[in-house]
Structure formats: C-alpha cells, structure tokens
Design goal:
alpha/beta, 5 strands, elongated
Length: 266
C-alpha cells in the first residue's frame, strides 16, 4: 500500500469514528430529551437563556407566567404523568415547529393519541383566557363608531375619509394539511398555505379574523363567506382594500391603471 493510500484510509477511518461519536452524542441528547418530566425539570432549571428560548419559544419567565395563569384559571391541572409545564411545552413545540403528532411522538415518547389529547387541552385552556384579555364592544355602543383619531387629526384625510373605519385583506399563512387536499392549498412558490381574512382598525387592533380557507381561494370569496358567518360593515361606513376586491359602498379599492402618489407615500 502506498503512502498516499495509507493516508486516505486513515482519513476515512477518522471520519467514520467522528460520525459514530456524533451519532452517539445525538442519541444521548435524544434520550435526555425524551426522558419526559426529567427533561422538563432539567430545562426549567437551565441557566442557558438561548437554549430555553429555542425549546420553549419564549423566555423562561413568560413560559412560567403562562403556565401559572392556566393553572390559576382552573383550565389545566397536573396529570399523573404530565405536569402543566410539560403539557404547555408539548403544545408550544407543535405550534412553533409545525410538527405533526408523529414527530412529536418521537420527541416526547408519548402516543399520538396522548399528544393530541393534551394539545387540545392546552388549546382550549388558552381560548378560555379570552375574556381576560379581549374586550368585546358592548351592545349599547355596537352601532356607534367614532371617527378614528388618525383621520380626524389629519387635514389630509379629514373629512374625506371620516367614514373609513379600517382596512381588510387576505393574509397567506403556511399550513400543513392532509395530502389528499393539499393541491388546493398549494401556492405558486410550492408550499401549502391558507388564506386568512384579517380586518384591522387604524390603531392596529384586530376587528375580525376568519381562518381556514385554502390558499387558492380568492379573497373576495373569503369575504363573502365571512359576511355569511356574521361579519358586518355598518351602513355608511367602509373599509380600505386592495384591487383584489370589487369596489362597493362598503369597500374603497384603488382605481385600476392609476399611478398614485408613490413618492409622497414613500
């Protein structure tokens, strides 16, 4: 065997050993990660903020406050196998990484049925917090919509836009769907999305959201469905929208083939 061949053989052996060591380290880390509550206890006591944020998708004190809030509200409680913190961690992992039940099963070493059950428990618990953080308009004032301060204080917009109460548009959000229906969710960039109708006021407050429509569905179809489900635009008021919608008494859209004051807006 030549000297060059011997060196090449030694290099190959060194690479194989390195790969074996790396795989053993990965498996060791995986075993620690999959040790359930022990892993959760070790993570919560970690002094590495970056690792905590990567695992929990939020800072530790925020995660602890969220878990405590869900406990205090009575929405979640420790089970014989999983603490509230562990349940919330599984939920955040699935939401943040877009993981399927199968992937979460490999990570947390629980059955897909168990993971799905705890996912929905945490989801429902968070939804129940709505009344504590979202103030719905009272029925007495529901019909009265004052002129937005952003408009009334502007000589450029008032009185021309005094009846404008916000803007609406469709927002495309990546989503994972069953393969049998994925074709209608595909966009031109090659991944699956859903078309979400979002309605906002001038103070950047969400007034209405409708999610679930396939990405291939036109914005106007989603809006019509929202109206059937209870979304109403008060008489005499209107929203700003883009050219994807039809102009009407309730929507103000740009005129086609008209160049607006681009420099001024920039």
């Amino acid at each position: 065997m030549s000297l060059a061949a011997s060196a090449s053989t030694q290099a190959i052996i060194a690479i194989i050993n390195l790969l074996v060591e790396t795989e053993e380290e990965r498996l060791s880390q995986g075993a620690t990660y999959r040790s359930g509550q022990q892993y959760m206890d070790e993570l919560l006591s970690s002094q590495n903020p970056r690792r905590i944020k990567e695992c929990l998708r939020m800072e530790l004190h925020v995660f602890q406050k969220l878990s405590e809030k869900l406990k205090a509200h009575g929405s979640l409680e420790d089970s014989p196998n999983l603490t509230v913190e562990h349940q919330v961690h599984m939920f955040l992992h699935i939401v943040a990484t877009d993981a399927s039940n199968r992937n979460a099963k490999e990570s947390f070493q629980h059955s897909g049925e168990t993971i799905s059950r705890y996912f929905h428990l945490v989801l429902n618990a968070i939804i129940q917090l709505e009344e504590s953080y979202i103030n719905q308009p009272s029925k007495a004032n529901a019909g009265y919509i004052p002129v937005s301060p952003e408009i009334s204080k502007s000589t450029k917009f008032y009185p021309y836009f005094q009846n404008c109460i916000g803007a609406l548009d469709g927002s495309l959000v990546p989503v994972t769907v069953p393969s049998k229906v994925s074709s209608v969710y595909h966009c031109r960039k090659g991944f699956t999305i859903q078309n979400i109708l979002v309605v906002c006021s001038f103070d950047f407050t969400f007034q209405y959201v409708l999610a679930g429509w396939a990405g291939s569905v036109h914005d106007s179809c989603v809006l019509e469905n929202a109206k059937k489900k209870g979304f109403k635009i008060p008489d005499g008021k209107y929203y700003l929208a883009d050219a994807g919608y039809a102009s009407s008494t309730s929507l103000l859209v740009p005129y086609r083939d008209v160049r607006y004051h681009l420099k001024e807006q920039a």
